[in-house]
Write a structure and sequence with these properties.
The structure is a single chain. The longest helix is centred in the first third of the chain and has 18 residues, at 72-89. A hairpin with a 2-residue loop joins strand 3 and strand 4 (312-314). By secondary structure, the chain is mainly alpha-helical. Helix content is 28%, strand content 7%. The chain is globular.
Amino acid sequence: MLDNDQDGCADDATVVKTIRINQSGMAMFGTATGAEQFADQIAETFIWQDLNAEETSLSCSGKDETADCRDAAIEEIFHLVSAVGLSTAYPKVFGECQARGDARSKMQIQMDIARGGHFETVPTSYPATAIYHYTDKTCEYNCQGTELIYWALTSLLEGQDKRQQDNNDEWEASTPQLLLSKLPGMYTLLTDKETTSMKLLSSDGVLPGSGGGAHLTYQPKSQKCPIPNGCSLDGSGCGPQGNNLDLNRCTAPPPVDAPVVAPVVAPVDTPVDAPVNAPVDAPVSQPVGTYYPSDESACEDNPDFFKKIKRKRRRCNYFAKNVSKRCRKKNVIENCRVSCEVCGKTGEQVCERSPMKELKKKPCKAVSCCQWNSEDKSCSSSVGDDLCFPEE
């Protein structure tokens, strides 16, 4: 995707630098169950997109998708490239972060046209004019943008034509011709070559894996980019890797050498308007670590917190449905205090969790009042029998 012409150089070095400065990449597991089981072992500083071996099918990758077979690697890897790379490097054009009115990116304007209106949450039903109607309630506005650009690009590059009938429940423009006729503004965004030099985002782009899977179809000439100061496959010339626990892709500045775009903030009283036919033009990062309520006297759930589980973004109400099991995951207790039923409880009650299942090492260390005992491999209170989350 990043080196679509296979010359060993990133087609758009700014996109790669942005991904690296955000310390981002793929995390591959054997199964969806494995993803849930081992996700807590991934460093907090790493922004990752999951992919499972059981959903990766090399025989039907890229343009070789069929009505019965698809390679999820194309979708999941492109989600990372678009959400962390394109969106952050070019926020005015491909921005996916929550926005409304004039603060929307050009892509978001096209998305609102495709959805038949501006919906910050998934509506009960979409207007009859909508051609894009994603109904997953966990997929909020920025997530809807991540899904839209995947649908549009793979349709442009003939990766959806054989699945058109199955796609219609969610997406009604599965061929280049339908994309051009139903959402011409998005077609132009992906083919005008005005914003990014990524060759994948053009009418000449090639979906990776077309014709035999990535192991057969990606054969770059060299690991070193022959262009002076170019971004190479081995990472040289591609900028530093970030390591910022609190980095928020929706507010962080672009990396060095990237175009600096002044942030545009809609007024508080800006109405939620219908889409406008304008000229064609990681997900906010998951909050991690200690959450500080807006009211210091309150014990509350963090409204911005989510955790990816089985490819879905789960918020605190999800963990409340099975406190004993689900609240054992890393960073959940600290951010979902009401849902995990820890308000007004002592450190011993929160950390030892008797009679519920015990916390493992990383989830234990992620709770501010807990400490991990290496000798007996158990979680205990660091505040004794004082309240874990005191209300001052």
